[in-house]
Amino acid sequence: MEKIRKSEDEWKAQLNPEEFRVLREAGTERPFTGEYTDTKTVGVYRCRACGTELFRSDAKFDSHCGWPSFFEPSESDAVTLVEDRSMGMTRVEVRCATCDSHLGHVFEGEGYPTPTDQRYCINSISLTLEPAE
């Protein structure tokens, strides 16, 4: 997979201000406001910045946390995980492996009845959904 590298100005030209704030500046959309929070559509979730496949609908589950939640990425190398010590705590940030855009965070050990015991808590604005045909 080839990395995508763009200047800040190129990203600003491609993304709207809110997309840029979340994807390129590691912002977070408000809970329960995202387009895909409660979506049940079968399909593939892609990075809004570069189009890389990140998650599939069969790994999406209802966590009731305010953001779309997945128990695993579609491919093991689709995302990268980075230690995040912002906000006075240690978390694990999830980034697109292709363009290094911020997607959200992953949490473990919360007791959700999923195969991986992980919750990839992802900003809707970081994603696009390609419905299955």
What this model shows, in words?
The protein has two helices and nine strands, in the order ααβββββββββ. The chain has 133 residues and is mostly beta strands. The chain has a single domain (8-131), classed as Beta Complex (Metal Binding Protein, Guanine Nucleotide Exchange Factor, Chain A), CATH 2.170.150.20. The strands form two sheets. The chain has a six-stranded antiparallel β-sheet, with no helix packed on it. Strand 5 and strand 6 (91-96) form a beta hairpin. The longest helix is centred in the N-terminal third of the chain and has 7 residues, at 8-14. The model has no long low-confidence stretch (mean pLDDT 95).
What is the structural class? mainly beta
- Fourth-tier CATH superfamily name: Peptide methionine sulfoxide reductase
Number of strands: 9
CATH architecture: Beta Complex
Low-confidence stretches: none
Strand content: 25-35%
User: What is the N-to-C succession of helices and strands?
Assistant: HHEEEEEEEEE
- CATH C-level class is Mainly Beta
Rg, Å, rounded: 14 Å
CATH fold field value? Metal Binding Protein, Guanine Nucleotide Exchange Factor, Chain A
Largest sheet: 6 strands, antiparallel
Key words describing this protein structure:
mainly beta, 32% strand, Metal Binding Protein, Guanine Nucleotide Exchange Factor, Chain A, 2 helices, 6-stranded antiparallel β-sheet, globular, 133 residues, 3-stranded antiparallel β-sheet
